Protein: Amidohydrolase-related domain-containing protein
Organism: Friedmanniomyces endolithicus
Amino acid sequence: MLYTQATIITVNGDRDIIEDGAILVQGDQIAAIGKTKELTSLHPHETVTELEGRIIIPGLINTHMHTAQTLLRGTADDLELVSWLCERIWPLQGNFTTEDGYTAARLSITEMLKSGTTTFLESMFADRYGFDGLCQAVEESGIRGCLGKIVMDVGTYASDPKWAMHPGLVEDREMSLVGAVKMHEKWDGKADGRIRVWFGARTPGGVSEGLYKEMTAISRKHIPITMHCAEAPADRKFFASHNHTPTSYCEAVNLLGPQTVLVHMVHLDNSDIAKLAETGTHVVHCPSSDTKLASGICRVPELLAAGVNVTLGTDGAPCNNTCDMLQEQRLAGILHKVSTMNPTSVPAETVMELATINGARALGLAGSIGSLEVGKKADFVVLDMRAPHLQPWHNPVSAVVYTATGRDVELVLVDGKEVVRAGKLLTMDEEAVWKEAARRSKEVVARAGLTKQVGAEWPVK
């Protein structure tokens, strides 16, 4: 397959942008990339898709996602994190069935693919949601998924008994850690290598130090870790109560290192930033979630300046409320300009790196995804720029970061296969997915006894 006449943002080592560019796909890889005239003359018999007026970017990599929570979109708006968890999200998730988990995964993946995400990192999938169903949804959809199975043995937030999890969500070592290892044995490398199984550890205070150390010992051999950390003021108080900063605590339980992806990382000291850089630990920036929950603003400019690999994630739908990485890019590019009062802070080019090659590095996949280069996987996204709200544009990177949204995605390839064409998902029935999700969401809310609480504040007549 030959895709021609597009503007191609490669994010390769030289950060080349190719005008009137073409990409040749053979099997699951990029076989050639260059000017349209050159590639069409060299490959005259290939099936051609003409893409004049479009921009091609590497597939977006969402490094923090809660696939189960998309079923709960709009159920916990305008709350801070602990209330959001204890009053809404945990009671709702504690009433999930495995069928609900599978439906939620299909809805999440549908939205991600249609808005340009080709790879995602699931942060913390609970046993009751049905991990097999999550893997099946990844397999049938064509997306690439690094799937974190929850690891925990403490059923509170920040070890505070006032902030208890719903009993239906509490897991012990056998169910969580041992269960994750079993899922790794069963699913890692499946779906033509598109599935990778990770540890999805709960926030400090939700895992005993002994279980952390047992998990990290396994991780250093073959299973990476993702974990929320230093997200909200309550987390900072937890660390202080143990005479630690966020990274000194993580270091004490052997969490730091290139096998670990830490999420949010809002409440950091300068020493924390230095330690992250020293150890090669990756950080996920979630600007929509952190602002909507009023958790704070991650110190992204300082992290980048220190050499920390910073990536981008949408977080879950109840705290975003979308899974659209293009919208997440825009906020990541704007937020730090006002927080630092410096309009050059975190420019568009840096934001695109967060959403592509930096994400690939964090997942250990930079050799195969994250940029458009010969020999890498054919994971890319085509944006149709032929619309009033996208014209005119001059710098294609800033046009993508500051102007485009997921609704502008026309074509998506993962592993060399078209999974979205003309804006329509090819691998699953979109209408069936969202209708089933809408039905099951209402059922979950009703089972949790929260129908009135999640409804409209204004009178409904």
Q: What stands out?
A: The longest helix spans residues 430-447.
